[in-house]
Amino acid sequence: MIASANRPETRRRALIGAALCEISDRGSLDVTVAQIAARAGVSTALAHHYFGAKEDLILATMRHLLKEFGQKTAGELRMAPTPRARLSAIIRASFAPDQFHRATISAWLTFYAKALSSPAAARLLHVYQSRLRSNLIHALHGHMDRPAALRLADGIGALIDGVYLRAALASGPAKASAAIDLVEDYASLHLAHGPGEALS
Amino acid sequence: MIASANRPETRRRALIGAALCEISDRGSLDVTVAQIAARAGVSTALAHHYFGAKEDLILATMRHLLKEFGQKTAGELRMAPTPRARLSAIIRASFAPDQFHRATISAWLTFYAKALSSPAAARLLHVYQSRLRSNLIHALHGHMDRPAALRLADGIGALIDGVYLRAALASGPAKASAAIDLVEDYASLHLAHGPGEALS
DNA sequence: CACTATTGATTGACGGATCAATCAATCACC
DNA sequence: GGTGATTGATTGATCCGTCAATCAATAGTG
Questions:
Q1: Contact residues, chain A, for B197 at CB < 8 Å
Q2: Contact B136/B90 with Cβ under 8 angstroms?
Q3: pLDDT of residue A195
Q4: What is the 3-state secondary structure (H, E, C) of chain B?
Q5: Which one of A36, A124, B39, B93 has the largest count of C-beta atoms within 10 Å of its C-beta?
Q6: SS (H, E, C) chain A
Q7: Average pLDDT score over chain A
Q8: B160–A159 C-beta distance less than 8 A
């Protein structure tokens, strides 16, 4: 038996992974700790031993997803020399294959729904949105004045979220390239043809 | 006493309204029939008497929202003479004040989440999306060829959904005019400057 | 019009099932 | 032998759906 197989950190990871699987499989946050524990191959009592309440396990699972996404974005950004390249890097990271597949997309949607009733979950999603927004503004500021950058960043952010939302409900497998083209198209058009009308 | 106050249809409407209130108040579909019944001022048994299972009451509540939205859209479209006006009418209807406020927006998000695990809910949302898409394509077809119209319709649809999603999590009150401007801006730009790049 | 029968609305109470969380008791390892 | 990992069993609470019983209104009958 591998010595690390029963170490706490390994168990934590296994439980988080199992939670993610169950959530996306069932398409709901109404997963029981018994289901999660069973998939992780441990007892329900152990899940409570490591995470305390069920809510904490769910939040830890969210943090895991958020962290993965943040690292992916940071990695793509590190290789982007120009502002325009940074913009594409952000878009590409948002639809990276390991993020943009059915299971993960479903999990995102359920977390968004949970944020409606869980302030803690709302806070987590807020930091993600803020980071995405900040990255977008930084990339766009090289091409337009700040108010225009703010507005376009909101548009691109909303479009990305909308594409995710629709992908979650679509029947077939999520097609990342089409999603990227859609958002890139939107961004390019706004970059090419100046700022839109002023908002009311 | 009003004669119609205790008629079946009145009770149905009251229960659906109560369900909507509870769902948006609690920000979750984890509402008990007891809560809904209490808000409607009846017993839990009566809720079951009229709707059978809890699921049926939830689905009836979804249908109510969908129907309201459909009627709003149809009304706006009826007054739009040109294709361009039809496009604006669709956008305007999507963010009509009686649809685009916190309670309704929250309900939409929870219904989207439910569709992940409930085929019946998924079907309902599918017909809504199909109708929106069909309306958009019809309006756009007057300005571009069919493939371009299909693509732009998908983009506008995703953007609308994304704006809703973000409004659900935003703290302040939903600002319809900003949302309309954002989507109108997107549409106008694509109408003015031809079709985007071909998709892969 | 009186008087009863029938239907439907409505409720309180309850059974059965589920689930989160706890606890005392093992187990493994240093 | 002591410390932490692990578990089976249990508890307390919640909730859905059902059932028997009540009440109001309507219809039918002479």
A1: 181, 185, 188
A2: yes
A3: 53
A4: CCHHHHCHHHHHHHHHHHHHHHHHHHCCCCCCHHHHHHHHCCCHHHHHHHHCCHHHHHHHHHHHHHHHHHHHHHHHHHCCCCHHHHHHHHHHHHCCCCCCCHHHHHHHHHHHHHHCCCHHHHHHHHHHHHHHHHHHHHHHCCCCCHHHHHHHHHHHHHHHHHHHHHHHHCCCCCCHHHHHHHHHHHHHHHHHCCCCCCCC
A5: A36
A6: CCHHHHCHHHHHHHHHHHHHHHHHHHCCCCCCHHHHHHHHCCCHHHHHHHHCCHHHHHHHHHHHHHHHHHHHHHHHHHCCCCHHHHHHHHHHHHCCCCCCCHHHHHHHHHHHHHHCCCHHHHHHHHHHHHHHHHHHHHHHCCCCCHHHHHHHHHHHHHHHHHHHHHHHHCCCCCCHHHHHHHHHHHHHHHHHCCCCCCCC
A7: 90
A8: no
Task: Tokens 């197989």: give the residue.
Answer: A5
Residues 119-148 of A with CB under 8 A from B: 122, 125-126, 129
The minimum CA-CA distance between A41 and chain B, rounded to whole Å, is 24
Q: Are B157 and B136 in contact (CB under 8 A)?
A: yes
For the residues A40-53, what does the mean pLDDT come to? Answer: 92
| Calpha distance B186→B91 (Å, rounded) | 11
Show the tokens assigned to A58: 């769910």
List all residues of chain B from 24 to 63 with a beta carbon under 8 Å from chain A. 26-28, 30
Residues in chain A: 200
Distance CA A152, CA A91 (A): 13
pLDDT band at A10 (very low <50, low <70, confident <90, very high): confident
Q: Are A199 and B179 in contact (CB under 8 A)?
A: no
Cα–Cα distances (Å) from A97 to A19, A64, A92, A109, B10, in that order, read 20, 17, 9, 17, 50
Enter the tokens of residue A172.
């077939």
The pLDDT score that the predictor gives to residue A5 is: 45
